[in-house]
Give the backbone structure.
Amino acid sequence: MFLHYLDLAWRSIRKTPALSLLMVIAIAIGIGITTTTLNIYQMMAFNPTGERSEQLHAVQLWSQGTDTWDEFHMQVTYQDAMNLRKLSPQFKQLVQMRSGMVIQSDNKDFEPELRAVRVTDGDFFSMFSVPFRYGSSWSKQVDESAAYQVVISENYNQKIFGGGDNVGKTIFLNRKPYQIVGIIDSWNPQPRFYDPMNGAFSNAEEIFVPFSLLAIEKYQVWGNTSGWKYEEVKTFEDKLLSEKVWLQFWIELNTVEERQQYKQILTDYVAEQKALGRFTDNKSASESHKLNTVEEWLEHSEVVKEDNRILVGLSFLFLSVCLVNILGLMLTKFLKRAPEVGVRRAIGASRFQIFSQYMVEVGIIGLLGGITGLVLASGLLYLLGERFAMDSSLISLSHSMWFIAPFIAIVTTLLAGVFPAWKVCHTKPSIYLKSQ
Amino acid sequence: MLHIKPIVSALWRSKSGPVLLLLQIVLSVAIVANASFIIHERLQKMTRDSGIEEQEVLTINVYNFGENVDYDLQRRKDIEIIKALPNVKNASLVSMLPMSGSGWSSGFTAEPYDPKKPHQHSVSSGIYFNDHHFIDTFGLTLVEGRNFRADEISFSQNLSDVKAIISKAFATEMWGNESAIGKKFYHGFKEHITVVGVLEFLQGDSVGRDTFENGIILSYDFIGAGKNAIYTIRANVKDIPQLEKDIKDALMADNPYRVFQGFETIAEIRKEAYRNDALMVSALSMIIVLLLVIASLGLSGMVMFNIQKRTKQIGTRRALGAKKRDIIQQFLMENYLICAAGALLGGILAVQLGNQLMRHYNLPMLDLSYVFFTVAGLFVVTTIAVLLPARKAAAISPAIATRSV
């Protein structure tokens, strides 16, 4: 029966090509716009850590005094980072920041280049599930007593050495030799959850050095430094001792108990610091810290931009206009065929049969519109990439859209089709028989 | 004569078509009014005057990584090397670039900071540390006071008793309509700064910030943060491509341990800074255009059907002496009635939608003029969409109409 309806539907579509085309165009444009905005939204709102989201926590401290900014800052001071690191050696944890250095190698063909570098602790790789191709992270000991070691990406390994296991070889960062201890496989989470402040959709760094080198090498901060009070900061040492926030702290807590335990540790820590004359705001010690899961962290850093929410909302409204439009067109089309239905009803077709046949026809139009809309969406995304240099992770059409877009298209057209189809199958045969 | 009553009763008899049309217009008004409002907001934001000769100012990032380099000396030497090149009008070492998205800002007070007096009014501003070449290199306009004198330039990081040239926006926020020249303002409790000049415009680094138009230049010759330095060069637009190469060669000849980044003019930096706003403007414009296309296609389709359905009626009316004009007028009148009702309901919905957007997002209140313009636009578009099929209807000859069906 379905095949028969399909055949009838196809004939009917071909009989009114202009109207059918209009409907397909309307649904295609609606779906094209909605898919485009939804795709970007989905990519932005994606949480790349999956199940690990609940275990990884970004730590925030209310280290400011009164009369200053009135929310948790996303970064912490050097003093706090160093203290936190010592408080809970039983947990995996890291302090980190973004820097940049000039990279050179013994390879004479390799031009010196300025690259972003992540300055972090060794647990970075296991906490954030970074896969290694060769070697491994630097040892726990290096986090305590600094050593000139470096982890690079496979991509960068290719670029400098032309690939292969180059663990043990040396590269130069700002003309200082660093020994390669590990080479990671491709790893580029989008959004860049572990440091959304420095561009949530820029690429992950490809060079990693131990945080323990920071005070020795006085790495430049490639990121935000904020201060809530007036402090004279002239030297790097001043900065380390200051109340300025410029570092990020992450900890892995696998169970609810661990989370509770760590919250207590933080409360005790803040109380102790308050006693020392820091954390001078009126907030209580237990309220002066915050643990964020990755999910919460992405939310907090406003990775999904306001503009995108507005666009998604407007595009769904736009889709509803298309829906109303199609409803009108379908009503037009079906009522035009009322005489034909009258005859069919008179010779015995049931209402249900006629209704089903029309719904099949509507479904086909929806499917055609959905597919055209999908093509339109990929074209739009491509244009966005070309004209506005949008980050490539945002403008690739997600695979789920291959199902979502036609699904929305078919559901909306079916919805729009119910009323016209219902109306037409309630046609009284007698009227049309008479007027013939 | 406009025969409204029969038209209304005709519409009333076949409700579904007109109701759908009405719904479509209501939604369209709400969407288009709000979208065009946002577009206008963004365009206004994007076209704010920086006061800079944007096309003529080239910027370069130089990262030095030589060992035992005195960065301070190196930078001063670099500027002299650049100034000595042909076609360079002026050059300056700067602490940050306007609109670049990264830089320095802080709060300043009209009285010294006193910890015993919390909640002092503080004015936030972007900060440039620079010498007396800054204004000329950027092509900025002084509206009051003067430029720094060469002997006022400080070379130490001590900001006490430095001179400042400030933007008019900053002056107004700090002192209202009083003249700012000679006034002092404070950073923290001990650094006091004296105003010597007021610029028409000087923007900060972050185009999204509320205090973006607040900018100050302090008479402190910046030695840069660590290894990175930003140079700005003023030159004729046609000389800029060649200059990029010349500058690089000249600086490399002096010291090869450097990496260059971002040969960009301020005009290019502006484009980059407002990229998201430009994107929003294009996306919303596209939505508006497509919406109008769809709405008018749908409307035409429905009118066409109406005409077919009413061929007999039209023919009869024509036979009874109705002119072509009357037929067209009938369809237009139908459309205007629906449009008017749609405009009213749509206006209400638009304001509601605008309120929601204002509540949840960083948007000001929807200006009602957008609703009016949208409605006016819709009247024009629907008129065209109706007129084309209606003319066809009017061409129906009475004879054919009465004979067929």
